[in-house]
Amino acid sequence: MLLFIDNQNCENKLPLDNTYGDNYYSYILYHSLTGEKEFILSFSSDEKEENLNFLFWYEYNLFVLDTGSFIYLIDDTLHIKAYLEVTTPLIGIYLTTKNNLILLEEASFRIVSFEGEILKHELFDLIEDFSLENDQIYIKTSEGNKIFTLM
After folding, report:
1. Distance separating alpha carbons of residues 98 and 120, to the nearest angstrom
2. DSSP for 108-129?
3. Alpha helix ranges (H) inside the chain
4. How many angstroms separate the CA atoms of 86 and 54, rounded?
5. Across the strands, what pairs with 63?
6. In terms of CATH, what superfamily is 2-149?
7. Which of 39, 47, 73, 139 is buried most, with the most CB atoms less than 10 Å from its CB?
8. DSSP 19
9. In 22-126, where does DSSP find H-type helix?
10. What is the C-alpha separation between 58 and 146, in angstroms, rounded?
11. Burial (CB count <10 Å: 0-12, 13-18, 19+), residue 129
12. Domain locations in the chain?
């Protein structure tokens, strides 16, 4: 894997060395107009590719990368600003209108700032259903219904 990355004609490479798993992923990000390689992000994971998430947080020039075990906030110079452990399977990630990141796991809900600061964290039984409406998230669990305002 390191040989593959070294053979790529790209100066901006970030191999995430502290990741583990049977699958090795390399994401090569190209400039959409010139076709030049801009960045290479690589990591290992036990997750299938279709279960991983990748988001570009435009307002802060951040890559949000889900490796199955961690969520990384990586700036456009490939510096890791923060990383957060995923404790239960991730349902998804979402940017709020107030420019914070939502991490929704099967048994938890977090609101995270662009600096990686956890602004809100709630744990509960497994989520049975959820919906997003009017800057609020409605979560149904066996404990009952919960409503959170998205900051």
Report:
1. 14
2. EEEEE-TTS-EEEEEE-SPEEE
3. 2-6
4. 15
5. 56, 74
6. YVTN repeat-like/Quinoprotein amine dehydrogenase (2.130.10.10)
7. 73
8. -
9. none
10. 30
11. exposed
12. 2-149
Q: How far apart are CA 146 and CA 108, in angstroms?
A: 12
Closest Cα partner for 76 from 59, 95, 63? 63
**Distance between CA 125 and CA 143 in Å, rounded?**
7
Other beta carbons within 10 angstroms of residue 122's beta carbon come to: 12
What SS3 state is found at 87? coil
Half-sphere exposure of 11 (CA within 13 A, CB side): 2
| pLDDT per position as a tens digit, 110-145 | 999 999 999 999 999 999 999 999 899 999 999 999
Q: What percent of the chain has pLDDT over 70?
A: 100
**Distance in angstroms between the alpha carbons of the first and the last residue of the chain:** 40
